[in-house]
Every structure is written in C-alpha cells, then in structure tokens.
Design goal:
By secondary structure, this protein is α/β, with parallel strands linked by helices. Helices cover 41% and strands 17% of the residues. Helix 2 packs across helix 11, helix 5 crosses helix 6 and helix 11 crosses helix 12. The longest helix is centred in the first third of the chain and has 20 residues. The structure holds phenylalanine. The site of phenylalanine has 14 residues, from helix 11.
C-alpha cells in the first residue's frame, strides 16, 4: 500500500518536472507538435449533470466531423485526435478541464462549451495561454469579448431576443408578456434583458419578471406571482431541464398560455420531461433538421446512420465548429496559437450545416438565420424562419 503510494507520488513529481508530456493512447501515436504526429484538439463539455444532452450532442457531432476528416486523409497529412473532458455542467469544472487540456495535454485548440456561463469561465484561460477556443453554441455576447483567441459559430442573444420579441408582438399580436429567468445563468439573464428591451421598444408590455435558480424543483411561487398579472405568454430563457418542469407546474396551476424561449430549450429531453404541458410552446433555434438544404440533408443522414438519432442544433453547430477548425489548421499550415488564431479569424464563406460561416472582426459569425420551432403533437415543427435583416414573416398574411 505505502509503496504504491510512493511510486504514484514519484511519478507525479517526475511528470511535473518533465512538463507533463502529452499522453499516448492505445492507438499508439505521438505528440501534438510533431510534423507527422496527430494534431491534438481539446473538447470540454457537459457530458453529465443538469445539461448533459448539450455535451453529448456536441461530442457525437465532433466525432462524426473528425472521423470524416481523418478518413479523407486528415489535415495536411496529419490526423486529428480529440481529447474530451467532462465539466459536469459546472462553470468551475469548465475552468479546470480547460486548464488540464492546455497545460497537461497541450492541445492546439479547444472546442466548447455550450452553456455561456461555462464558456465564460474557460475563455480567459484559453486567452491567457494563446490557445484558440471555438464555442459552437454559447450565445451570450460577452463570450467572444474575452479576447482575440475566442470564436463562436452561433448567432448572439441580442439577435435571438429581438427576433422572438418581434415574432411574439408583431406576428402573433401578443402584447402582455411575463418573463421567468434563471438568475444563475449568464445566458438566461442576458437573453431576458435583450428580449425585454426589444419587446418594450416595439410597444409590448412586460407585466411580470420572476426568477429562479437552475436545478430548483419548485417553481410554483414564481408562477403564482406571474398568474396574478394575466400575461398572454410567458417568455422563459432557460435550459430544457428546468423548462420541462416549469411547463408541467404552470399547467397544474391552471395557466394555459403559451410558453416561449430561446435555444436553451433544445434537447431530445425537452418533450420527454415536459410532455403535453409544452404543446403549442415554441423557441428560437439555430437550425431545423428537416431543412431541404443539401448540407443539412447530408449531415442529418450521416448522423442518423451512425447514431440512430436525429441531430439537434448542438450537434449541427459542433459539426460546423470542428470542420471550421480543421479547415483553419489546413490554411495555417501549422498549429501554434497565433497562426491558428489568425487562420480561424479569416474564416469566410465556409459552407456549414447551420449556414454559411463568415466570421466578422468581433469573431462572431455574420448574418446567420434563425428558426422558430414549435412543439406540435409531441414533436418539433418548424414555425418560422427569420432571415438576418428582417422581421419574422407573418403567418397566413404577407
Ligand atoms: N445558447 C445557449 C447558451 O449560451 C446554449 C445552447 C445553444 C443551448 C444551442 C441549446 C442550443 O447558454
């Protein structure tokens, strides 16, 4: 017992002095820095915990993209290898996993996270170490403001909040709305703010604003307070696990108005949790798997073939993120941080599953479309498509 501990300690110390060489795996290959070796890319995500479907959808799509790239010969003759870390849906763990990926595994770039609070915790570490990070799906504007090594593939919350405000007010003609916020989430507080600003600026009225903390089990106090203000709709910019419970409890309280939200509702678990309570509810999202676009068709087919499930928006964005990174590595011709950062920043006209990716000077993609999906007969249906410049088209009119 004692001797084993001593051996382990000695190894740990030796590793520390050697600067922790990258691990080799049973596939038997080499380091991230060698010319012919594999290129090691880090991935951190919520594989367990409250938002576990976010991390799992992201991971499956990254593997699909990377295996496809490797099967076609890799990047500049080198294979890409993904080193994945689970942050358990926690911001502190997001910071820890990224520190590990950078200082121990010596990854050349990092893919992740989904939840904005987790990306915000990890981004400064990537920035300080000059390791490019691409978040596929964190929509809070401040994520890419952490520095010039931080990029994203998705639209931002000011855009999605305003699009939903216009759709609810101008297209559906609803005027009195309540907002229910997860006050521990940067995504939720930010999106609530952008939605509220946009909704009131076009003449709508926010009749109540209530908040909870992600993971709460009982939302009845907040819902009861909202009920007294008689809203025509409740806007809930939160994550699927809470949204499902909120919907059930609202119906139990006799509240039958539609609920609406943002991309955080997106999960194969949403309808599983909320069921009938979500019928007629809707949210803004990044893509719709039934889209006839050939790039979408190709991706959906490949994903279904491998995993036997329809890919959600997290998967679509992650697929784009992995392929944008691979293309940037190819253009850079090397993998040092500054060269890779410059190459990613120059991404223009990249034909992705979630649209054409043109990264702007702020490292966010320009002109992405948004879809509004609705729960209909316990499945997701496309309700509207919002093009970047305009308002949502009115249904049934022109
Ligand atoms: N946009 C969410 C966030 O920033 C994450 C998310 C994206 C969730 C897409 C679901 C679908 O926290």
């Amino acid at each position: 017992m004692k001797r084993n501990l001593l051996v382990a300690l000695t190894c740990a110390l030796a590793l520390a002095f050697l600067g922790c060489p990258p691990k080799t795996e049973s596939t038997g290959t080499t380091t991230s820095s060698g010319a012919e070796g594999e290129i090691l890319v880090g991935e951190y995500g919520s594989l367990t915990g409250g938002q576990a479907t976010f991390g799992n959808s992201t991971h499956t799509a990254i593997m699909l993209a990377v295996d496809g790239i490797n099967a076609a010969g890799g990047v500049n003759g080198r294979k890409i290898r993904i080193q994945t870390e689970d942050d358990q849906s926690k911001a502190e763990e997001a910071a820890n996993t990224v520190t590990k990926l950078i200082s121990q595994d010596r990854v050349v770039a990092v893919l992740g996270e989904v939840a904005s609070s987790n990306s915000l915790a990890a981004a400064p570490i990537c920035q300080a170490n000059k390791v490019p990070m691409i978040t596929p799906s964190s929509t809070n504007p401040s994520v890419t403001q952490k520095g010039d090594y931080i990029f994203r593939m998705c639209f931002l919350d000011d855009y999605q909040g305003a699009a939903m405000a216009r759709y609810i007010h101008n297209t559906l003609g609803l005027n009195k709305v309540a907002v229910l916020i997860d006050n521990k989430s940067d995504y939720s507080t930010g999106l609530a703010k952008y939605f509220t600003e946009a909704f009131t600026s076009i003449g709508g009225q926010i009749v109540a604003t209530q908040s909870f903390t992600s993971g709460d089990a009982d939302f009845r106090a907040q819902l009861t307070a909202i009920r007294t203000t008689n809203p025509q709709l409740i806007y809930i910019p939160a994550y699927y696990n809470d949204v499902g419970q909120i919907a059930i409890q609202a119906r139990d309280l006799g509240m039958n108005m539609p609920l609406a939200g943002g991309d955080g509702w997106e999960s194969p678990k949403l309808i599983e949790i909320g069921g009938k309570a979500l019928e007629g509810c809707f949210y803004s999202n990044h893509y719709f798997p039934g889209d006839p676009d050939p790039a979408v068709r190709d991706f959906v087919e490949k994903y279904k073939q491998r995993y036997g499930a329809t890919p959600d928006a997290l998967a679509a964005l992650a697929y784009d993120a992995a392929r944008v990174l691979a293309e940037a590595i190819k253009r850079a011709g090397k993998t040092d941080g500054p060269a890779l950062r410059d190459a990613i920043a120059q991404t223009k006209g990249f034909k992705g599953v979630t649209g054409t990716i043109n990264l702007g000077p702020d490292r966010n993609p320009e002109g992405k479309t948004l879809v509004i999906v609705e729960v209909k007969n316990l499945a997701l249906a496309l309700k509207a498509k919002v093009e970047p410049a305009g308002a949502a088209p009115a249904t049934g009119t022109h």
